[in-house]
Amino acid sequence: MGSYIPSTGAQREEMLRAVGVPSFEALYADVPQEIRFPELKMGTGRSELEVAAELRAMAAKNHVFSSIFRGAGAYDHYIPSIVKRVTAKEEFVTAYTPYQAEISQGILQSIFEYQTMICELTGMDAANASVYDGATAAAEAAAMCRDRRHSRVLVSAAAHPAVRSTVRTYCEGAGVEVAEVPVRDGRTDLEALQGLLAAGDACFYLQQPNFYGVLEDAAAFGAAVHAAGAKFIMGVDPIAAAALATPAECGADIAVGEGQPLGMPLSFGGPYLGFMACTHELFRKLPGRIVGETTDSRGERCFVLTLQAREQHIRREKASSNICSNEALCAMTAAVYMAAMGPQGMAQAAQLCTSKAHYLASRLGETPGFELAYPKAEFFHEFVTRTPVEPQRLLKALEEQDILGGLPVEDGILWCVTEKNTKEQIDRLVEIAQEVARA
Amino acid sequence: MKLIFEKSVPGRCCALLPACDVPVRPLESRFARKDPPRLPELSEVDLSRHYTALAGRVHGVNDGFYPLGSCTMKYNPALHEELAALPGFAGVHPLQPQHTVQGCLEVLARAEALLCEVTGMEQMTFQPAAGAHGELTGLLLIKAYHRDRGDAARTKIIVPDSAHGTNPASASMAGFEVVNIPSAPDGCVDLEALRAAVGPDTAGLMLTNPNTLGLFDRNILQITRIVHEAGGLNYYDGANLNAVMGVARPGDMGFDVVHLNLHKTFSTPHGGGGPGSGAVGAGALLAPFLPAPRAAAAGGGYAFETPPKSIGTVKAFYGNFLVVVRALAYILTLGGDGLSEASENAVLNANYLKALLAPYAPPACAGVCMHEFVVTLERLKKETGVTALDVAKAMLDCGIHPPTMYFPLIVHEALMFEPTETESKETLDWAAAQITGILRRAAEDPQSLHAAPCTTPVGRPDEVAAARAPKLRYRFDTL
């Protein structure tokens, strides 16, 4: 039987005697007899060797594609070795939330550095220590904007489907109305938004690039939202953010996003990381942990969890959010990633993504039927093409060649290309697509 | 220690990405940002040393004793990290075709079945990423259930005043009104107060059992019955499940919905504040409302399905999957017999440490405790001026992570210890000697405790200054 209990049988007996009880059972006298010690219908414990083999067998039942052209909220970027090495340090992995600042400076400083990097990436004034993922970050951002006079939440229908549904779930709980702003030609419809905006609106959420990969004219949305007295939330891709006008430049009050592209593996959807940053006016409304700088009893610079008067353990039912555990190790991962890449590496990754995505789009476009679904739109590293054949037929053919193709969407296939996709992989994909189209 | 930005040298970098092998296509300039982000410019050796230095300024479970009450800081097995890093798990895209992710679906389905057996629930979701997220999810299930029955009057959630702060905060987020009821002095539910609080407006009760004073509420069956008879549902906060695995199941206690902290009870590492997993189990009444999607057996394999009355999603994709991989490895290693052995020894270790400390640190309540216990240093403070905070800080100098301080709120000068089952008798003996040494010193030399810690990388931080003039990011212009 597997066990991680170090005390021996003799020691346990000795400890029971010291406690003054005759048996383990006697420790549970307060548990009602009729429910005490149920028989669990599950196997007995096993050795490490056996469990390792069983989990490896499960992992082997999954297919890991050698080339991936699918994004849609989870992106296959290169992860530098140094990122994996330093974030695997046991001290970081096994520590709890840094309540005891004197023995948690390593984690506190890393989060302070992470907060600074997120501010730099987004152009915003303050960031928190992370939330669960991009979708919950959007939901928390919407909650930050609500007050007695502003309640309704507007969301672009070109935002990621999981963001839209998570915002809806959170808002339904709080009894808040959500309205979606429709999409036209792959872009959020600005005129429709202007028609919808009303006095009691709390905020509008725009994703940049949007779910279809299209770049929105974000600043125009910001201006429209502010003219109506609401707050402007932008959800941004952090790699694209290295190249695109910052949320601050576009007038955003809050910038959020899915941090997975910053050094986190695909991991079947998690753990990922939600980043959140905002303007100076709003920082006291940020949910969750925030690290701040101060000095210690010896006058040295040090870091602590701060502004805790906002949080659930102080405010209880009056807290604006219930979050406590977040994704600290993922935030550290993102920080190590950004530090390893540096400003040049981030810009290079962004440029490789854009160049290769446009290369695939133009190569696919050589074959009739694979036209861009939204030809007038600029895109970053994702785009939708129509297909001359049933999308599933093409995707199946790609899968047989160990390629994960794009995601089927309403207007065709949503393709994604990152710096990991080589010209050779892209040409091969195009070749297969041409064969399928001819067949 | 220098910040990473203070180590940056313009022009320095790591060679990570290849040259572009297709025609370079710049973005249309109207979309481009004005200035690049001021990220640090470092070589790989700079990075390695920076983070190694930071790691030296962190106390993890692998560094030493970590009896942080309510947090279940048990040892995190090395095997789990290896398994979570397998390309067959870490390299899988969440939107791959289902026939290419059968192993991932099997992990979710098997972990669900095993955890349902441990908790006495019907079905489980792994979508919530942490305990508080699980609470919100569970409460949204209760809300959807009452709404589905056409009962709009049930707007209140009852929470005892000994509860974790997340309970009332989650209830508010889910749009409920919170009714706080006072606890008995031992943190147990005051049955009369509960009877007075329930009614046709009761949506449910949130309860932690064992409670935050470390006691199993012996009236648990009456408590859940009172709520059920009033038409409400019972929510089990699984923060303290480590005391009762294989000993008592929340479902058998009368709970309708449970959240678990896989990063506590099921030994997945906490990562300095996450990622965790706040899995939510639902009984028969609430299972149809669980978030979508949910992995289930289908046609000899596994497939995602949407529960018939699903509340929707509370997070993108399927939760913190790699955390579930670790928890499954843990459960398979221990098995049913090992889980109850773990709980029994967690309770034994807590009672043993409590007995060793009792002459100097009186327990807040008498009798046997579960996996954690609370002491009160009220008298020590009165007699010597030494506070629970001083004692906690002095423990830092001994290489012990302090217990949870000043919680639960109903005990004055509280310290809450949870040693967990993965500490040996020698460690407990050693820790007790250190702590009683500190408590003896309180009378002889209180000043030395007010000044503690003195061997840590930094001294006590000025938290008031941090909150009064918040500095939440590095300022480049101060160079």
Automatic annotation (TrEMBL), chain A:
Key word Oxidoreductase present: yes
GO molecular function: glycine dehydrogenase (decarboxylating) activity
Top-level EC class as recorded in UniProt: oxidoreductase
SUPFAM superfamilies, per the entry: PLP-dependent transferases
Any one of the GO BP annotations: glycine decarboxylation via glycine cleavage system
The keyword Oxidoreductase is assigned to this record: yes
Reactions this protein catalyses: N(6)-[(R)-lipoyl]-L-lysyl-[glycine-cleavage complex H protein] + glycine + H(+) = N(6)-[(R)-S(8)-aminomethyldihydrolipoyl]-L-lysyl-[glycine-cleavage complex H protein] + CO2
Organism superkingdom: Bacteria
Subunit relationships: The glycine cleavage system is composed of four proteins: P, T, L and H. In this organism, the P 'protein' is a heterodimer of two subunits.
PANTHER family: GLYCINE CLEAVAGE SYSTEM P-PROTEIN, GLYCINE DEHYDROGENASE (DECARBOXYLATING)
Protein name per the record: Probable glycine dehydrogenase (decarboxylating) subunit 1
Organism taxonomic ancestry: Bacteria, Bacillati, Bacillota, Clostridia, Eubacteriales
Name of the coding gene: gcvPA
Automatic annotation (TrEMBL), chain B:
Location of the Glycine dehydrogenase C-terminal domain: 342-438
Xref: SUPFAM superfamilies: PLP-dependent transferases
InterPro entries linked: GcvPB (IPR023012), GDC-P_C (IPR049316), GDC_P (IPR020581), PyrdxlP-dep_Trfase (IPR015424), PyrdxlP-dep_Trfase_major (IPR015421), PyrdxlP-dep_Trfase_small (IPR015422)
Keywords: Oxidoreductase, Pyridoxal phosphate
Lineage of the species this protein comes from: Bacteria, Bacillati, Bacillota, Clostridia, Eubacteriales
GO biological process assignments: glycine decarboxylation via glycine cleavage system
EC number(s) on file: 1.4.4.2
Keyword Oxidoreductase assigned: yes
Positions where N6-(pyridoxal phosphate)lysine occurs in the chain: K264
Pfam family, one: GcvP2_C
Subunit structure: The glycine cleavage system is composed of four proteins: P, T, L and H. In this organism, the P 'protein' is a heterodimer of two subunits.
This protein's name: Probable glycine dehydrogenase (decarboxylating) subunit 2
Family, similarity comment: Belongs to the GcvP family. C-terminal subunit subfamily.
Primary role: The glycine cleavage system catalyzes the degradation of glycine. The P protein binds the alpha-amino group of glycine through its pyridoxal phosphate cofactor; CO(2) is released and the remaining methylamine moiety is then transferred to the lipoamide cofactor of the H protein.
Catalysed reaction equations from the record: N(6)-[(R)-lipoyl]-L-lysyl-[glycine-cleavage complex H protein] + glycine + H(+) = N(6)-[(R)-S(8)-aminomethyldihydrolipoyl]-L-lysyl-[glycine-cleavage complex H protein] + CO2
Cofactors: pyridoxal 5'-phosphate
Organism of this sequence: Anaerofilum hominis
